[in-house]
Amino acid sequence: MAANLARAGFSVTAWNRTPGRAPELADLGVSMAATPAEAVASADIVVVCVSDTPDVEDVLFGPDGVVNGARAGTLVVDCSTIAPSGSWDFAARLREHGIAMVDAPVSGGSEGARNATLTIFVGGEPEDVERARPALSAMGRTVTHVGPIGAGQAVKAVNQVILAGAYLGVAEGIVLAIKAGLDVEQVVGALGGGAAQSWVLTNRSGRMLDNDYPLGFKVALHHKDLGIALDLAARLGAVLPVSALAAQLESGLMAQGHGDDDMSALARAIRGLSGLED
Amino acid sequence: MAANLARAGFSVTAWNRTPGRAPELADLGVSMAATPAEAVASADIVVVCVSDTPDVEDVLFGPDGVVNGARAGTLVVDCSTIAPSGSWDFAARLREHGIAMVDAPVSGGSEGARNATLTIFVGGEPEDVERARPALSAMGRTVTHVGPIGAGQAVKAVNQVILAGAYLGVAEGIVLAIKAGLDVEQVVGALGGGAAQSWVLTNRSGRMLDNDYPLGFKVALHHKDLGIALDLAARLGAVLPVSALAAQLESGLMAQGHGDDDMSALARAIRGLSGLED
């Protein structure tokens, strides 16, 4: 994502929690900083993309965090997927430093990040969202302002809930097709013209058939995101049984060492329940 | 489906279990018969489309059934969705009368039947499938030969299993979006460009938002089809927890008088669990 910002002509200074993870950035003219505070010292826009709510809090408010380096008037664009309540909290605390914030969680996996084809859901004040839009458009293909601060996170939660059903439905269908001795690839082709058509059926059923799950989007990250969605649902009184089942199956996959598989590995869980060889 | 056969130039004689259901057929030159046996007396191809395994058995082998009227050499094309074991059984019994059979269950709902845009999965001997193809192509848009007799039913079962996950995932996502106060139509638009994209999200999320479920495809029929799929799965040792959950929720909808709603009414069940007004 930093590389795509640099390619789009932005002057980028980067900081990564794990130094040396992106050596190719130097070739694109990206400066590396030793701390978040140092990275943002002359920034107009600060893009944060880490794993979970406490990680964002560390980057923003930790000892060498963003608030210790950023000027008043800076805009923080948080592309992490965290709890909407975290976005509300962090935005209020940043405001005390004269810093604005939008939440801008992304969907599209590692391919989307690499190819600048991410789908981005943005929550915040309209003027802040418009200020963020050129940077977001450099990293993603679809940028939608979906409401006030935290709304981007809520939409991301909805996305992860819909994926739980889509992946499990296809996983169950593929396992039944295998057990019934059908030509699975032909079945996928025949079903893709009807009501069963989906991105998951088209793009992930082959991995479920092969029982091989290269990334994509990690089981462990979808599990983290479902935790956010189920927590939000519990606060709001929404009851999501398929999402809860998916989170349980993903916990099992992680316990068996498959947390770094692509989330299409939900089919590994259904295969296991059905006694198909690993 | 009979009208589309007549429009394609086939000479059609029809019989319906409920007389007078299709008065428009007369204008298309379709003759009406009083019994299945009478309808098939001079037929080369007999198309059957009823609800469940016992209904097909009645039409084929009942007192005035197909075997009492059809000539040896006739081909039966069963477009009903029934148990694959039923297709095997009926094909064997018809063979004793010199009658061939293919199973050709359809997907695409009442719109698909009316507009000849059905997706059709065909199981049978290659020469029988080729003989059926012109008639099937008059009723559907995609006709795929998926294996020996019963294979069409197995593929249809896979289709209904995938739909269970797809509908429930979207239903849970829409309920969470409503509870979170999001602009649901905008959310659907934003998510439709990513991994959550599906026919169900595009075509059925609006009904879930409105909590109004015009046909489409009836809850009671999907429930019947899931029963076939879960029975097949139990015989084969496939474990399908989301499909089983969907069947239970559909049982509840039927008990509450919603069996004739479109199956997107699965969202009504999730809304009810979540305390949203009816």
Structure description:
2 copies of one chain form a homodimer. By secondary structure, chain A is mainly α. The first copy, chain A, folds into 2 domains: 2-147, NAD(P)-binding Rossmann-like Domain (Rossmann fold); 154-273, N-(1-d-carboxylethyl)-l-norvaline Dehydrogenase, domain 2, CATH 1.10.1040. Chain A has helices at residues 2-7, 36-39, 53-61, 84-95, 109-115, 126-139, 151-179, 184-191, 199-210, 219-236, 241-255, 266-273; strands spanning 13-14, 31-32, 45-48, 75-78, 100-103, 106-107, 118-123, 140-147. In chain A, the strands form 3 sheets. In chain A, strands 3-4-5 form a 3-stranded parallel β-sheet, sandwiched between helices. In chain A, strands 6-7-8 form a 3-stranded mixed β-sheet. Chain A has a two-stranded parallel sheet with strand order 1-2. In chain A, helix 4 (84-95) links the parallel strand 4 (75-78) and strand 5 (100-103). The longest helix of chain A has 29 residues, at 151-179. At the A-B interface, strand 8, helix 7, helix 8, helix 9 and helix 10 of A face strand 8, helix 7, helix 8, helix 9 and helix 10 of B.
